[in-house]
Automatic annotation (TrEMBL):
Keywords: Flavoprotein, FMN, Monooxygenase, Oxidoreductase. It holds the Pfam family Bac_luciferase. InterPro entries: Diverse_substr_monoxygenases (IPR051260), Luciferase-like_dom (IPR011251), Luciferase-like_sf (IPR036661), NTA_MOA (IPR016215). Belongs to the NtaA/SnaA/DszA monooxygenase family. It comes from Nesterenkonia flava. Residues 36-293 form the Luciferase-like domain. This is LLM class flavin-dependent oxidoreductase.
């Protein structure tokens, strides 16, 4: 293990999150729920979040996009906000797309989540890359002739746009100083207007005056994440995010990708602290290997293919999962994000079987005794306000 990963682990810096999508990450999971309409209920998502929190997972992420899904999908920012009032410790990271949404609305939605969850919100950035998504919201992509659907240039353009959106959103979060609310009854003043700031953003795609209509989030800046390992994704994360989720498929590929991320950070002179890089690991977990393989075969028989679940999937027992996850810790990753094959089976198995085994093995540190903000829990620096007088003209 490198000295960097040793010190990180010693500081309790290796973390575990759970990625939630519909009924689970294996396509066969859809056919194993008696009433598939239940995934559109508050009880379904509430139970998953509570079980994950009970096992002391650091965070859950919620997958979303603007595309039309065969089975339908709820808005994850609304789901996360609902869960914010029904959980106490776990981080809540919804997906919001940047392609057909306005930065002002993204900023307000996520600030609201952070207030409701008392500082446990985050943001997974996504882009809407297809023509179908554009048509669903009544908009087109810029320069369709120059950037046709499926082209590398379109992906590069949309992720470049996402960087600009993140920049605007971060500035909007800072447009209120932390003590802007004064609530002075004698004078009838609710806000100190000197502590609200116009961001006056003029970019290649957006012109935003501000300030926000929502007070600064409790965390100041919610943790911002990207997922994927394409060149545009790594570049966007390196210039604007705090977290990057990679699905490497194998430890050998993982080490190569981690080195690539650090190279890109240096190439673009990243001003923020180094990215927190997590390995995405699809997982099907049972008490024993025969049980795991049996359930895997059942899922395979129900679906035409395993989709992307096959890429480095852990179909194993707790001991096997601990060994695999330890490998990524030793490589210098900041954590893993597990993608359960079936939510109703594997979220409970992760919480009840795997998380205790990881802590017993020393792979994960003990969970914090008192609730923390998501930034604190993940070891991110305190977010200072770029518009505060002592930092006027500075950068978060």
């Amino acid at each position: 293990m490198s000295s960097t990963s040793l010190s990180d682990a010693a500081d309790g810096g290796f973390h575990l999150g759970i990625s939630l999508r519909d009924t689970g990450w294996h396509p066969g999971s859809w056919f194993r729920i008696a009433d598939t309409a239940e995934i559109f209920t508050a009880e379904y998502w509430g139970q998953l979040a509570v079980v994950a929190e009970r096992g002391e997972a650091d965070f859950v992420t919620f997958e979303d996009s603007l595309g039309l899904h065969r089975r339908g999908r709820l808005d994850t920012s609304l789901v996360a906000s609902w869960l914010g009032a029904r959980t106490e410790r776990i981080g809540l990271i919804p997906t919001l797309t940047t392609t057909h949404t306005e930065p002002f609305h993204v900023s307000k939605n996520l600030a609201t989540l952070d207030h409701i969850s008392t500082g446990r919100g985050g943001w997974q950035v996504e882009v809407s890359i297809t023509d179908v998504e554009a048509q669903l919201v009544g908009r087109g992509h810029p320069d369709p002739q120059l950037h046709p659907e499926g082209s590398a240039s379109r992906a590069a353009a949309l992720f470049a746009e996402s960087e600009e959106v993140v920049d605007v959103v971060r500035r909007l979060w800072d447009s209120w100083e932390d003590d802007a609310e004064i609530r002075d009854v004698s004078s009838g003043r609710f806000i100190d207007r000197e502590k609200l700031h116009y961001i006056n953003y003029e970019g290649s795609r957006f012109s935003v005056k501000a300030p926000s209509i929502t007070p600064r989030p409790p965390q100041g800046q919610l943790p911002v994440a990207y997922k994927g390992q394409s060149e545009p994704v790594i570049k966007a994360a390196a210039t604007s995010a705090d977290i990057l989720f990679l699905q490497p498929g194998s430890p050998g590929r993982a080490q190569q990708l981690l080195e690539e991320v650090r190279t890109v950070e240096a190439l673009f002179a990243r001003r923020l602290p180094p990215l927190k890089v997590y390995a995405d690991l699809p997982v099907l977990l049972e008490d024993s290997l025969p049980q795991a393989r049996g359930r895997w075969e059942t899922l395979e028989s129900l679906a035409e293919s395993a989709g992307d679940f096959d890429d480095g999937a852990l179909v194993t027992d707790p001991a096997g999962a601990v060994e695999a996850i330890s490998t990524y810790r030793n490589l210098g990753f900041n954590g893993v994000r597990l993608k359960p094959a079936e939510h109703q089976e594997d979220v409970a198995a992760i919480s009840e079987l795997l998380l205790p085994a990881l802590r017993s093995a020393g792979v994960l540190a003990a969970a914090p005794e008192t609730p923390l903000t998501l930034r604190q829990r993940l070891g991110l620096n305190q977010a200072v306000n770029r518009y505060a007088p002592a930092l006027a003209g500075g950068q978060q």
